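Customer ticket, subject: "Can you confirm the structure for IBH1-like N-terminal domain-containing protein?"

Message body: Hello, I'm evaluating your service for our small team and ran a test protein. I'd like someone to confirm that this is what the system normally returns, since I don't have a reference to compare against.
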Amino acid sequence: MHSASSIKQKFLKKWIMGLQLCNSSKKNMTIMERRKAIKLSADLALASVRNCTTRWSRALVASASQNDDNQALLQHIIGSDAAKHKKASIDVVANSTTSVAKKIASKKILKRSWGIRRVRKLSNGALKDPPYSIAKRLVKKRTQLLKNLVPGGESMDAISLIEETLDYMVWLRAQVDVMRSLARASERLDGK
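Agent reply: Thanks for trying us out. I re-ran your input and got the following:
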């Protein structure tokens, strides 16, 4: 594992390269275009520093590679392996689509095989879900929310999702630290 400072240095170097390329490719950007360029170059720099070895990093590359306008940026940040990563990323996206469809179909079959769900009755005759059912529903909601937050999370099982989320959080933390340092340095320069 790399030290936190070397990770941040590598990220900053790749991110600045991406920002320079975005700036040189289009001089008069709107605020929204500038925002998208900053986010895209930061995401690709993060995936690049992570060497596209995790699902979330491959999902970020796959998302960027869907737009032909991003090919130069991909090539510049990811490097000569961009085509290899693009193919692997497209495979990840394709597999996630089919696995999600399979999961939905298998859940429907499983629900049908269970038949009618058993519920408890309260003393007044009203039906009440068992406590484990409520907890199960809450876990399911939170897991779905997490799947939507982590790039590529839609196709992951619960264990993989937790591992990828923890890894993604560590790398996002490094990204945030670099961006904060850059903002502080910029404020100091503006203040002088």
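A couple of notes from the result: Strands lie at 120-121, 127-128. The helical segments are 4-25, 31-49, 55-65, 71-78, 82-114, 131-149, 158-191. Feel free to reply with more questions.
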